[in-house]
Specification:
Helices cover about 55% and strands about 20% of the residues. With about 270 residues, the chain is α/β, with parallel strands linked by helices.
Length: about 270
């Protein structure tokens, strides 16, 4: 959503017409501005805004700023209730930008780099190449090594790569359920948006970004299982589930930070010129 600037050298007349503002100027065609796309209204110059138009803006949670001819701020009108978060509209505004792919990719890479550095610190790993592929290979090696801890003493059978990958997919799936609740509550039709904007895959990208932390979670789970009785098959998954539930509050906070971080970006540089 963008600011609507009413700055008329000649008198502008602004009225409300259902869900839109109508702006009329002498000798010009009437212009319509849907309220759902207006972030704020900035009025200066010779503009006459009807009480009905002002009320319509305030009812939609749109703040109104009035400027003096010298550019100074004369005052503001604030809505009684803040505008409800409209994530779906902001996403639509983003993908309508000609440069949305580069902007979105900048955010995705930044969020993924932060997640990668965090899990490397947690596991005490050092990787020279911080691209996703080399880091992922290094983390799998670390998990395989931890899966062997205690095997010589008979404390824990070796967990092969297949079992570790199944465990990682399981944790990723649990995160997908939690993240799904966020975008469902926001009213976003991610599948429809992906069809209209090929390459926009925020759902999958959020799960992938969250999934880096699961390498760290699995590393700690393997250490905790080192002194436990034999854990294989369903027992291993049930044990993982119990561990995931024990840290559910922390995981929810972490996923909420990831989601709200994306919303903050979307409401700032992501959705505006």
């Amino acid at each position: 959503m963008r600011s609507l600037y009413l700055d008329g050298a000649s008198t502008l007349r602004v009225t409300a017409d259902g869900p839109s503002l109508e702006v009329a100027a002498a000798g010009q065609a009437v212009r319509r501005f849907p309220l759902r796309r207006v972030g704020r209204l900035c009025v200066t110059g010779s503009a006459v805004v009807s009480a009905e138009a002002l009320t319509a803006c305030l009812n939609q949670g749109i703040a109104i700023a009035f400027f003096r001819p010298d550019g100074g701020l004369a005052g503001m009108a604030w809505p009684a209730a803040p505008r409800a978060e409209r994530t779906a509209e902001r996403l639509e505004a983003l993908v309508q930008r000609p440069d949305w792919r580069s902007r979105y990719e900048d955010w995705r890479r930044s969020a993924e780099r932060a997640a990668v550095l965090s899990v490397l610190r947690q596991l005490g790993c050092w990787v020279a190449d911080l691209r996703a592929g080399p880091v992922e290979r290094a983390l799998w090696e670390e998990l395989r090594a931890r899966g062997d801890v205690g095997a010589a003493a008979g404390q824990q059978p070796r967990l092969g790569e297949d079992a570790l990958r199944r465990a990682k997919r399981y944790l990723d799936s649990l995160a997908a359920v939690r993240l799904g609740a966020f975008w469902h509550a926001s009213g976003c039709d991610l599948a429809g948006m992906a069809a209209r904007a090929p390459g926009f895959r925020i759902g999958e990208d959020l799960i992938q970004i969250a999934g880096w932390q699961h390498f760290g979670d699995l590393g700690r789970d393997l250490e905790a299982a080192g002194a436990a009785e034999s854990l294989t098959g369903r027992e291993w998954r049930r044990w993982l589930t119990a561990r995931a539930e024990a840290r559910a509050a922390r995981d929810n906070q972490r996923l909420e930070r990831l989601w709200h971080g994306f919303l903050m970006w979307l409401g700032g540089a992501g959705g505006h010129a």
